Automatic annotation (TrEMBL):
WD repeats lie at residues 165-198, 209-245, 253-289. InterPro entries: PEX7, WD40/YVTN_repeat-like_dom_sf, WD40_PAC1, WD40_repeat_CS, WD40_repeat_dom_sf, WD40_rpt. SMART domains: WD40. PANTHER family: PEROXISOMAL TARGETING SIGNAL 2 RECEPTOR. This is Peroxin-7. Coiled coil: none annotated. Keywords: Cytoplasm, Peroxisome, Protein transport, Repeat, Transport, WD repeat. Belongs to the WD repeat peroxin-7 family. Transmembrane segments: none annotated. The keyword Repeat applies.
């Protein structure tokens, strides 16, 4: 199993490149994100099965999330505890004060937006997704104002956010663009709700449901059905929602002993999803077969925060956690599953 140690840095987010199947980015922070700086690692799975560092760059505050551009293989967005979003070009030949060169790769800070309100703890971070339908700029960014419960939509070529979406009454933990409807995204919050938004109508959400009787920490869209979402809560439950009828969850998955920190749908199997939790586990689920996990993987010794599927390699996932480890692996339950007959929406 390819594994990489991020020395003295604790993992918060890991994402596969949408262009290069062997490339991974990982956002980390010092001192468990409570103080100190952050490091963005660019990693690569090599032919002999190892996971090696290609490049890394430092930021003055902790890095809590990241996203790859879906229109440029060299662009990464990171979100930091100082309230900023950083847009990085990992191959730009220019050199600036925010550049680090390693192994012939260069991280160049293209832009940094710091208009988020800094929390008292300095822990503003966002669930970020590229919106490939926007052609006005390299990437359109969906960010979170962590303390005040706002969603903000950014264009890197403009000094202010494109729109602010008000509706949550507590911390917004995650926001995800729909892979099916270009102007639609979902968000979840410490207020226990899942909200669905139309970017053309930022004044209020188009749909809202109390998703958990606890804080909701993560959400994701099914890649095969535009009406299905999953949410993960601090109650240790995963709920599935059908936007055509929000009166009750269409599925409930049980097994995590503590909070579900992140949930992701498989890009290769209609009803399969994965989750990571504060109980140190990564779990694989099939909501059409059983409410219990297909497989439980426990190869971390601390909270597991980051999770992603590889769009190019069926059955391969990556996770990262507070134990400073990044793992890339193919759970047995995913390897044994047959591939669907139709490709997912990218």
């Amino acid at each position: 199993m390819p594994t990489f140690l991020t020395p003295n840095r604790h993992g918060y987010s890991v994402r596969f490149s949408p262009f290069q199947p062997e490339r991974i980015a990982c956002a980390t922070s010092q001192y468990f994100g409570l103080a100190g700086g952050g490091t963005l690692f660019l990693l690569e799975v090599v032919p002999d099965g190892g996971l090696v560092e290609v490049a890394c760059t430092q930021w003055s505050d902790g890095l809590f999330d990241l996203a790859w551009s879906e229109t440029d293989a060299n662009i990464i967005v990171s979100a930091s505890g100082d309230g900023g979003l950083q847009l990085w070009n990992i191959s730009c030949p220019q050199v600036s004060n925010h550049t680090m060169t390693l192994n012939n790769f260069v991280f160049h800070l293209l832009t940094s937006t710091s208009d988020f309100q800094r929390t008292q703890e300095g822990s503003v971070f966002g669930g970020l997704e590229s919106d490939k339908t926007r052609t006005v700029s390299i990437v359109s960014i969906l960010g979170l104002q962590y303390k005040t419960g706002k969603n903000l939509n950014w264009d890197p070529n403009r000094p202010n956010s494109l729109a602010t979406f008000l509706g949550h009454t507590q911390l917004v933990y995650s926001a995800m663009w729909s892979p099916h409807v270009s102007a639609c995204f979902a968000s979840v919050s410490g207020d226990g709700t899942l909200k669905v938004w139309n970017t053309h109508m930022p004044q209020h959400p188009t749909m809202s449901v109390r998703a958990h009787d606890a804080e909701v920490l993560s959400c994701d869209w099914c890649k095969y059905d535009q009406n299905i979402l999953a949410t993960g809560g601090s109650d240790g439950l995963i709920h599935g929602w059908d936007l055509r009828n929000l009166t009750s969850p269409v599925f409930e998955l049980k097994g995590c002993e503590y909070a579900v920190r992140r949930v992701r749908f498989s890009p290769h199997n209609v009803s399969v999803l994965a989750s990571v939790s504060y109980d140190f586990t990564t779990r694989i689920w099939d909501f059409k077969t059983a409410p219990d996990p297909l497989e439980t993987v426990k190869h971390h010794s601390e909270f597991v925060y980051g999770l992603d599927f590889n769009n190019h390699v069926a059955g391969q996932i990556a996770d990262c956690g507070w134990d400073s480890l990044v793992h890339v692996f193919s759970p047995r339950s995913l390897v044994s599953l047959s591939s669907p007959l139709v490709p997912p929406v990218k």
